[in-house]
Amino acid sequence: MKRLLSSVRDGRGFDIVLVAFPLGFLFLMAGLPLLYNVLMSFQEVDMFSLGTFLRPFVGFKNYTDLFAQPETWPILGNTAIFVIGSIAGQFLIGFGLALFFWVNFPGASWLRGLFLVSWVMPGLVVGAIWNWILSGDFGVLNFILKESGIISGNIFWRSDPHYSLYAVIMANIWLGTAFNMILLSVGLAGIPGDLYEAAELDGANAWQRFWTITLPMMRSTIGAIIALGLIFTLQQFDLFAAITSGGPNNSSNVTQYWAWDLSFRQYDFAKGATISVIMIVFVMIAAIVYVRSTRHEVRG
Amino acid sequence: MSETNRNRLMLVIAILMAAIYLFPLYWMYITALKSGSEMFATPPSFWPSEPQWATYGFVWESRNMARYLWNSLIIASGAVVLITVLGVGCAYVLARYRNVWVDIGLFLILMLQVLPASLMITPIFVGFSQLGMLNYPRLAVIIAIAAKSMPFFVVLVRATFMAVPQELEEAALVDGNSRVGAFFNIVLPLARNGILVSAILIFMQAFGEFVYSKSIIQAIELQPASVGLNSFMGPNTNEWNNIMAYATIYVTPILAIFVLLQRRIVSGLTSGAIK
Fold this sequence. Notes:
The complex is a heterodimer of chains A (300) and B (275). Chain A is an all-alpha fold and 300 residues long. Chain A has 16 helices and no strands. Chain A has one domain: MetI-like fold, CATH 1.10.3720. In chain A, 72% of the residues lie in helices and 0% in strands. The longest helix of chain A is centred in the N-terminal third of the chain and has 31 residues, at 72-102. The radius of gyration of chain A is 24 Å and the shape is globular. Chain A starts with a helix and ends with a helix. In chain A, 42% of the residues are buried. Chain B is an all-alpha fold and 275 residues long. Chain B has two domains: 3-52, no CATH class; 63-273, MetI-like fold (Orthogonal Bundle). Chain B contains 15 helices and no strands. Chain B has helices at residues 3-21, 23-33, 36-39, 54-62, 65-96, 100-113, 117-131, 137-162, 166-174, 179-190, 192-207, 211-216, 225-232, 240-260, 262-273. In chain B, helix 6 crosses helix 8 (137-162). Chain B is globular, with a radius of gyration of 23 Å. Chain B starts with a helix and ends with a helix. Chains A and B meet through helix 2, helix 4, helix 5, helix 6 and helix 7 of A and helix 1, helix 2, helix 5, helix 6 and helix 7 of B.
C-alpha cells in the first residue's frame, strides 16, 4: 500500500493516475454511447422500452426499413451536396484569402485573425443572422442581388425547395471559410522561401511557381484540411435548426439533422440510432484520413 | 510602386475584404437598432435613422435573458472545469512519452473528437434517461459537453506541454522534487498560458452549445441562451429587430474576449490542429 502511494507520488503511478481518469471518463461517456448506438440500431426501441436494455432484437430490420423509406436517398443526396458544396466553397475562398494575406504587409496577421469571429460565434447566432439576411421579401441579400442585376425577382431562399439547401450551404461557407484560411496560412508559412528565390532565378512566373512549388508543398496540409472540413460539415447541426429545420418537405434535410429529428421529434430512437451508425462510419473514415495526413506531427 | 505604397494598397484591399466578410455581423448590430417599420423598408437602410436603444432593455426583460445567460454560464463553466481537471493531466502524460501506447491513446482521442454531437445525442439521451440523469439536466449537459470537447482540449494542451523543455522537469527531480511536486511547481506554471487559452476556446464553444441542451433540458428555467434563441425564432417570426438584439447581447461578450485575446487564440488553435 505504501509502495503504491509513493509510486503515485513519485513514479510511473503518477502518470497512470493522470491518464486513467480522463480515458475512463471518455470511455464511459463517448465510447459506451457509441457501442450502445450500434446495439440500439439492431433493436426495436419505442417510448415504452426506453427504460430497459433488453429490447426485442430485430436484426437488420431497422436498416432495411430505413432504406425502404422514400426520403432516405434524397436526404443522403442532400448530405453529399451539402458536404461537397460547403468544403469546395470554404476551401477555395479560404485558400484565396490565405494567399492574399501571405503577402506580408503591416496589419496582415491581425486582420487575418479577425476573420475568425465567424468561427467563434455560436452556430445558432450565425444561423439567426443568415436567416434574416436570406429572408425572401425583406432580406438584404435579395436586395443586393437585385440592385446588382444578378436576379430580377426575390428568391425565397428558405421556403423554396430549390434553394433551401443552398441557403444553408451559403451560411456554412461563411462560417467555415475563416478556419480554413487560418490553417492554410500556417501551411503556407511553412514553405521555405529559398525555393521561390531559386524558381525565380530559373525564370518561373508566379503561375508556374504556384503550380510547381506551392501546391506540391501544401499537399499534406490540404489533405488534412479537406478531411477536417468533412468532419466539421458533418457536425453542422445548428445552422439547419436555425435556418430551415430541414424543410420545406425535407428539401434541405441532411443526415445529421434527420437523425436528431427522428429521435427527438418523431421519437423513433431506433431509426435515429441506425442513421447515426451509418454516418459515424463515414466520419471515422474521414478521421483516419486526417490522422494519417498529420501523422508526422503527431509522432513529433 | 514603392514598398510603402504597395503596403498601403494591400491594407486597403484587406480591410475591404474584411468588411465584406464581416457584413453579416454588421447587419446584426444595425438591425437590432432599427424600429419595426424601418426594418422592413425597401430599399433597406444601411444606417439606422433613429437608433432604438430601448430594444435591448425590452428584449432583456421580456425574453428573460438574465436567466438564459446564467444557465449558459453555469453550463460552460462546469464543462470547462471538468475538462480542465481531467484533460490537463492526460495531455501532460501524452506529451511526455513516446511509445506505441501513447500513439494508440492519441488515435482514440482524435477519433472521439470527430463524432458529431447530433448523432451521439441519441444514445447519450437514452442512456442518461435509463440512469436517471435527466433529473439533473444541466449536469447531464455538462458531462455530455465535456465528453465531446475534451479530446480537442487534450490535443491543444498537449502541444503546449510539448513546448516545455523536459530538462527543466528533470532538473527539478534531481533537486529532490517528487513527480507531483515537479508537475505542480515547474511544468504547470510554464504551460499556464496555453492551458488558459485552450480553456477559453472550450468556454466559447460550450457557451454556444445547442444540440445537447436542446435535447436534454426540457424545463425552460434551466435552458441556456442558445435554446432560448431557438424558441424565440418561430417559423413565421417578424420580430427580427428583437431577435438581432437578443443575438447581440448573446455574442458581444464572446466577440470581446476573442478580439482581446485574438493573437493567442489563433496561435493556440493552429498549434493543435495542424502542427
